[in-house]
């Protein structure tokens, strides 16, 4: 079972929330001095406003180049693409229905801050996130053996 399940008038349904444009994760990379110098030269020549602008553009270009592979893999692996939020009420509905989740997200998976470690353990079988998982430290610790 993929996605987020909630009880709506007795019917189970999948919910998807649009990601906020301001949602981002910080990454750190190491570059050789020659690569860094070339980046700084392109910035100095006005091609990019700063290093981050060039790096984001390069990443987006590579993702665009491989977009077909990404979409085929998302479909093959049954991944939720984008942001998936799991609220306490949703997990309680899953528990009441005797179901368990296999969370598979490419993007951001978030578990509400009011979800207890016990509820998470009772309702989540596995977590696979290509991107970021936002949850309390206690929930992440409880699910540590189930996060891939």
UniProtKB/TrEMBL annotation:
Specify one Pfam family. RHH_8
Superkingdom as given in the UniProt entry: Bacteria
Q: Which PANTHER family match?
A: BLL4998 PROTEIN (PTHR36215)
Q: What is this protein called?
A: CopG family transcriptional regulator
